[in-house]
Amino acid sequence: MPIGNVHPSVRPAQAGRTDGAAGSAPHRGVGRPRRARGLRSERLAPYILVAPAILIIVVMRLYPLLLGVNFSFTGDGDRNGMAVGLDNYLELFRAPLFRTALGNVGLLVLLLPVAVAIPGLLATFIYLRVPGHRVYRGVYFFPAVLSPVIVGGIFNLLLAFDGPLNAALGSVGIGAVDWLGDPDIAMFMVVGVHVWATFGMSLVVFLAGFATLDSALLDAARVDGASLPKVIWHVIIPGLSRTIQFVFVTTMIGMLTSMFGLLYVMTSGGPEGSTYLPEYYIWIQQGQMNRPALASAASTVLFVIMIVVGLLQIKLLKRAAREA
């Protein structure tokens, strides 16, 4: 049949298909840019959301830090504002009190595993639902809500030479101990009180880490008859390796930067300067000796110590987790 004689009912259908095909091309062309804009917005969204926090950190933390480092190379007193090079740092390391403070930092590093193990073991017992675990959860966290000044005042009374602790020791025939007046044990007392007052926060972090632990591994260990120490060493520690790293670093930072209140109330740096820490030395130089440049140098040294110790801890813990 000749093309010109095609039935009229066919032509509108063909025309409609042609129009639809022609109209669909612009629609697809408009859709692609919209999808591209949507993908670009999704990629930028995380950066936009974290930008305020980064800005606050830069303005409130990093910029003052850089100013402090720069200020540490200037002088005090008659040389105020003058560049003095490394004179402040040389004076720091010649000062007996600052060397004592650095020695106490080494003591804190040695005691750090104990400070982390205590909340870790308690969190393990709570996770394993020992009898009374709900009560323990609240009791353990209670000291974390107390002010360091209140905690220091309480333990000043308990550890006084004529306090309740020595009275209890005397009742069983043990002589009184000058817990806060003996240079050989005063620092251990302050660290012990700090651990008691702050381990509740680490306990909460460990419990959050246990929520991500694969319970099937614990069940398999129980079926195999593994003892609790083996379960802790071969299952819990590897499974919580990242949580343990976090608690180690935050506990160390807390020991180096959050013990001022206890030191001030319990010992005021004594006896004989035996409980000095860098943060207390910084306060003495800034507030009492009017040596802000020297205090800035001490702050810079403290910051470097925290960075070095934190990185070493993370490296050692990663290696221990691989070996476990």
From TrEMBL:
Keywords: Cell membrane, Membrane, Transmembrane, Transmembrane helix, Transport. It is a multi-pass membrane protein. InterPro entries: ABC_transporter_permease, MetI-like, MetI-like_sf. Pfam families: BPD_transp_1. Gene3D superfamilies: MetI-like. This is Sugar ABC transporter permease. PANTHER family: ABC TRANSPORTER PERMEASE PROTEIN (PTHR30193), DIACETYLCHITOBIOSE UPTAKE SYSTEM PERMEASE PROTEIN NGCF (PTHR30193:SF41). The chain crosses the membrane at residues 44-63, 105-128, 140-161, 185-213, 246-266, 293-312. The lineage of its organism: Bacteria, Bacillati, Actinomycetota, Actinomycetes, Micromonosporales. Residues 1-36 are annotated as: Disordered. It is found in: Cell membrane. Residues 97-313 form the ABC transmembrane type-1 domain. Belongs to the binding-protein-dependent transport system permease family.
